[in-house]
Write a structure and sequence with these properties.
This protein is α+β, with helices and mostly antiparallel strands. The strands form 6 sheets. Strands 1, 2, 8, 9, 10, 11, 19 and 20 form an 8-stranded mixed beta sheet that branches. Strand 14 (213-216) and strand 15 form a beta hairpin.
Amino acid sequence: MTATTPERVPVVVVGAGPTGLTAATLLARHGVPTLVLERHRAPYPLPRAVHLDDEVHRILQAVGIHEKFSEITRPARGMRLLDGSHRVLAEFLRDKPYGWHGFPQANMFDQPELEQLLRDNLAKHPLVTLRGGIEVTAVAPPPRSGAPVEVSFRDEDTGVARTLLADAVLGCDGAGSLARACIGSRMQDLATDQQWLVVDIRCRLPLPAWDGVHQICDPQRAATYMRVGEDRYRWEFRLRTGEQPEELTDRKRLLALIAPWTPGIPEDELHVLRTASYTFRAQVADRWHKGRIFLLGDAAHLTPPFIGQGMGAGMRDAHNLAWKLARVLTGRASEALLDTYQAERHRHARQLIRTAVGVGAVMTGGGTGTALARKAILPAVSRLPGASELVLSAVSPPLRPGPLVGSRRLGHPRPGTLCPQPLVPGPDGTPRLLDDLLGEGFALLATAPLSPALHALVRALDARVVHLHDPRRQQPGTGGADLGADPGTSALLHWMGTAGAVLLRPDRVVLATAARPRPGRTCGDDLAAAVTAWAPMLCSRGRAAGAP
């Protein structure tokens, strides 16, 4: 490299928050060298996000830190809806220790601790370099297709400005994203902004409050309370029209606001870690990528906190994009695969944002009349059979049919949904989470012998085959790992229903399914035929699935 020849790297990630660190780690696990540029040298020390669901916990499993994350997280017990006088309107309890994805459905944590776990884990990957103290000043789209992206930055210690070239750039640089501005993308509003005050407090004494999330459904002073850790608690208070945060952050006023949750607690035990005024926005970018410059996380969308999906949405972006970008950069897939990123994630994020806006309106919106209606309706709703499971279930919608999501078949698992993750026996018989057996790439779950066409598709995708043995049915064919009957395998078989095979993408989304064959027949011709049209995009070899 000379002074006139900029350094060239495969991928630059701008921003080392949870989204950027997740994307960089996943790319490394797929064999792609990555450079992460971040202004801060260490994780921002104050708390911000505090909740992840079981689906995002599963992404942390793909990153390799799920066990360590479990050590710093606290499962949430459920949610109570209360009126302005703190009388319970409805209570929704979580009575299962684990959800669909193999982890607690609601996980409370401290964001700086999660970021440190992600950084420590990143250091184990030689393909990733994290550089702190770097301010990215420009991201320039290339003049022609196939040319590298130019990234300009300044070292904050030395003041030296430099430029490098990247085959792809991931803008994980937050709500004020430079990358978004550089590609001409703009945020679209989906709802009116709201001003809230966020308060984080540490107290060594347990607060005498119900140990779950409290939502105060009061149009005069909507609020949220949650226990985040063993000694940490969070409150969020909506500011009234014209009200300034300074009016509430005086210690006397602040203690009065949280008094309903702290009776009997000495004031000197309540240590304020942070108070911050936040604008809760509902926005989505109109363009998520230009060429090989991509937006992820808050750079692409902003979600109100009512369903706890802000950080998780960004990590879903990383999980969706990383495997696609890795296949393209390593020559295993065509450039067209990258166009599916915005097509899939934009719709998904937009729907999540609208859900959050709707839930917030139901719980905190309206005037006196709406508040009275809530008092009349919510108690009755909470008593309905299955109400808790419905209210507290995952809010992540399935991906819609498209180039990487097959058409729905009656009685089969729905393409676009995530497969469940029970504990299943590993090679030594020890129970393991399903994803640990499926590996990093495509996977096929099968209950019957595979047809030649499906075998060809499996080879083209380098997919791992897992045979599920159901003693009530005929013995499956060979050609992959074989799981005998056990509770986890039985749960998978129940989920597969009438399918003889289910093809999973690397992000564990169902791509397509095959019908179960009659006894003595093989399965998969229908699945292979459905995927044939996508083979040139998914496989650089361009060989149609099922071709001899």
